[in-house]
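Deliverable D5.2: sample structural annotation.
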Amino acid sequence: MLLEELREAGASEQGMVLADRIAAEAPLRGLSRLPGLIWALLEVGRADEATNLARRVAADAPVDTEEWMPGLLDAVRAASTDHDARVLAERAATHAPLNDELDRAALIGDLWDAGEPVLSILAERLPGAGGFRQLVELGNLKEHFKFGREPDGSPAPPWTWDDLQ
């Protein structure tokens, strides 16, 4: 990356200016580039700039798009605080689209370690987005929802085929 090349060429001052600009002005659209930028800043020893970018991402990156980037939460967690990672995780759990099964799986995988209330937010959203099966697997709830789910989200009471008359 350019930052590393500037450092190796002895142009540390120019590298610092570039790192500052990346942290302050990098567009937050295009989530796929953000983890790489954060990690690159960390790798060249620009921890403060990586933290600033991670905080911007946590607070303002558009998480309501189809392009959730696996690894984004890990990068924010590595460069910033647990609080910033939790803010990003809660925003993603609340606003990220859940209409594609593979995207849901990637999001669940990234948010799994975030714990409560992030998993509760996802658990409330998944059934309405066609992700009931993933909800059951996510929470190991097969026995809990053995007879299905009521419209209000509660477990259905026991029933038999004879009850369907």
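Annotation notes: The mean pLDDT is 80. Residues 12-25 form the longest helix (14 residues).
The annotation will be released with the project's public dataset once the embargo ends.
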